[in-house]
TrEMBL record:
<comment type="subunit">
    <text>Monomer.</text>
</comment>
<dbReference type="GO" id="GO:0004045">
    <property type="term" value="F:peptidyl-tRNA hydrolase activity"/>
</dbReference>
<keyword id="KW-0694">RNA-binding</keyword>
<keyword id="KW-0963">Cytoplasm</keyword>
<feature type="binding site">
    <location>
        <position position="65"/>
    </location>
    <ligand>
        <name>tRNA</name>
    </ligand>
</feature>
<feature type="binding site">
    <location>
        <position position="16"/>
    </location>
    <ligand>
        <name>tRNA</name>
    </ligand>
</feature>
<protein>
    <recommendedName>
        <fullName>Peptidyl-tRNA hydrolase</fullName>
        <ecNumber>3.1.1.29</ecNumber>
    </recommendedName>
</protein>
<dbReference type="InterPro" id="IPR036416">
    <property type="entry name" value="Pept_tRNA_hydro_sf"/>
</dbReference>
<comment type="function">
    <text>Catalyzes the release of premature peptidyl moieties from peptidyl-tRNA molecules trapped in stalled 50S ribosomal subunits, and thus maintains levels of free tRNAs and 50S ribosomes.</text>
</comment>
<dbReference type="InterPro" id="IPR001328">
    <property type="entry name" value="Pept_tRNA_hydro"/>
</dbReference>
<feature type="site" description="Discriminates between blocked and unblocked aminoacyl-tRNA">
    <location>
        <position position="11"/>
    </location>
</feature>
<comment type="similarity">
    <text>Belongs to the PTH family.</text>
</comment>
<feature type="binding site">
    <location>
        <position position="113"/>
    </location>
    <ligand>
        <name>tRNA</name>
    </ligand>
</feature>
<dbReference type="Pfam" id="PF01195">
    <property type="entry name" value="Pept_tRNA_hydro"/>
</dbReference>
<comment type="function">
    <text>Hydrolyzes ribosome-free peptidyl-tRNAs (with 1 or more amino acids incorporated), which drop off the ribosome during protein synthesis, or as a result of ribosome stalling.</text>
</comment>
<feature type="site" description="Stabilizes the basic form of H active site to accept a proton">
    <location>
        <position position="92"/>
    </location>
</feature>
<feature type="active site" description="Proton acceptor">
    <location>
        <position position="21"/>
    </location>
</feature>
Length: 192
């Protein structure tokens, strides 16, 4: 078993591009590189098929708003017969500080509306998640409501840390596409 679909979560539109909630899009954009994500009407998403170390993988950025991400993920997974344990969802994570990235399979949505909708669409929580830390307003000493916090740009020092986490995450994607989940987790979770 290996990853065949990498989903970046975010909100469509230029007003959301640089917001914390779009961290999943940032990773997929970096992963796509010169591969152009094209609008796929049937999935209501930007999508592209690419090869990562010889493994065919779909990249997906739902173009619904975050809380309807499951529409795109479910439609593409059903169409290409991709099972939930072959899906990696990349998303922002309030419970991790900026600069931290964690990989896990399954678990609750932790209040993340994008994950809730994907779980409903796939009929299970047993898909892979790559959690990119953005911090919580309280842990960062901010008096900002969570909904407002995720829809704003990270501060300069937070963005630098998030970028580091993105780089570390990109380094393990090939392992995930080869089915080397333990090795990917060890590499990502080990601090140097």
């Amino acid at each position: 078993m290996s990853i065949r679909l990498i989903v970046g979560l975010g909100n469509p539109g230029p007003e959301y591009e640089q917001t914390r909630h779009n961290a999943g899009f940032w990773l997929v954009d970096n992963l796509a590189g010169s591969t152009r994500l094209a609008r796929e009407q049937r999935f209501n998403a930007l999508a592209a098929k690419t090869s990562i170390r010889g493994n065919e993988v779909w990249l997906l950025e739902p173009q619904t708003f975050m809380n309807r991400s499951g529409q795109s993920v479910g439609a593409l997974a059903r169409f290409y017969k991709i099972t939930p344990d072959e899906v990696l969802v990349v998303h922002d994570e309030l419970d991790l500080l900026p600069g931290v990235a964690r990989l896990k399979k399954g678990g609750s949505s932790g209040g993340h509306n994008g994950l809730k909708d994907i779980t409903a669409a796939l009929g299970t929580q047993d898909y892979w998640r790559l959690r990119l830390g953005i911090g919580h307003p309280r842990s960062l000493g901010l008096q900002q409501p969570v909904a407002d916090f995720v829809l704003h740009r990270p501060r300069k020092e937070e963005q630098a840390l998030i970028n580091e986490a993105l780089e570390k995450s990109l380094d393990v994607i090939a392992l995930l596409c080869e089915g080397k989940f333990d090795a990917a987790m060890m590499q990502l979770h080990t601090t140097k």
